[in-house]
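Re-run with default settings, no changes from the original entry. Doing this only to confirm the output is reproducible before filing.
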Amino acid sequence: MDASARAKPIMGTGSGVFTPPILQSIEDTGLSALWLQDLALKILYFEGYLTGFKIAEEIALPFTGIVDQLLEALKRDKFVEVKTSQMGLGEGAYLYAITGAGSERAREALERSQYAGPTPVPIQVYNESVLRQAQGRPTVTNRSIHQGLSHLVLDEPTFQRIGPAVNSGTSIFLYGPPGNGKTSVARAIGNMILHESMYIPYAIFIDGQVIKMYDSVNHQLSTEEPSGSGGAGGARTNGRRDLRWVRIRRPFIIVGGELTLAGLDLVFDDVHKFYEAPFQVKANGGILLIDDFGRQLVRPRDLLNRWIVPLENRIDFMTLHTGRKIEIPFDVLVVFSTNLPPRDLVDEAFLRRLRHKIELGDPSFDDYREIFKRVSAAKGVQYIDEGLAYLLQEWYIKRGRKLRASHPRDLCDQILDIARYLSVEPAMTHDLIDRAASAYFVEL
């Protein structure tokens, strides 16, 4: 029986509640003792002299009952030796060093994989954690969606489309002209529903391979203290803490023109010989925003075809470099945001697979006025109704220019820059509006 199949079941109470397992023995890790010994040897090989407690910290396992057993076996086989001991402080304070035989074994392990960090969790334990935490995702109501997006100027039909789309937890296709707030809407959705925290492992283990999961760029550590944990960032029970897991805010990950098909599969590092989890796996439990969809180097149709199975079945399949396919839950709200006409990107068959399609069109004159009032107040530009009427007449209506929700922000920034240069108060005067508009708008 594979060691990973013996991993201790996940603990938790109630629907949607997940608590990382408490480790009391090597068997509880779901990994073999030999693999864990190699991990400890790699740490010693790189670090030199370390205490038992420091080794336990580096590999994120309890010293008592696990790391002490690993070190005892390594001492017995003469792969490590004790250099000094601190009387009265226990074996965890002993200073350990790697021997010549240990260095040779560490080099052999490094040829297979140079991963030397927190102990990974077995893939099936991670998969179950995703499913358990998916049950606890918050839902929105008509009231909460209006509150959460109150800083944006949207018409009522748009509010009514966004709410059900968010609650679906599947996919949203945001489209419309540039500058009308598609990215702002996606960020507001994230801020509204992703305030809760969740657990993810630092790394995942499958068939001797390691997939690095935690990403300090895309994952934000949670300061929320879980109920009964005894501290933020980890789970405690009876004073024990499983450091293989890290508590984060539900992720909100943005990818743009840099997205490729290869970036949606496991990324194998040929030098270090371990994997990096792809964007959609790092976004599990949260939102993945594909911004500027259609601007990627790959064809939109190819990119969308990659999403068909995950979006329909809520399961993603990825391939190890050995050829084995693995199955991972797909608990991601995918938001496609594009400035391009849908007909230029996808066909009707694929649009049917995207559950919610929301167009964010140009603002009305009343909406534009409301946006200008809010932006000017926030930026310290004196709002003048007559000045706005002048702007609309001279720079929009006469020139056949379309209104965009981003224009008030950009024009106010221009007014601030010009007013600072002229040493005058920033206000919506004819002169400052003409100077700002002529510097901002370009005739195409």
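The longest strand covers residues 333-338. Residues 1-15, 227-239 have pLDDT under 50 and may be disordered.
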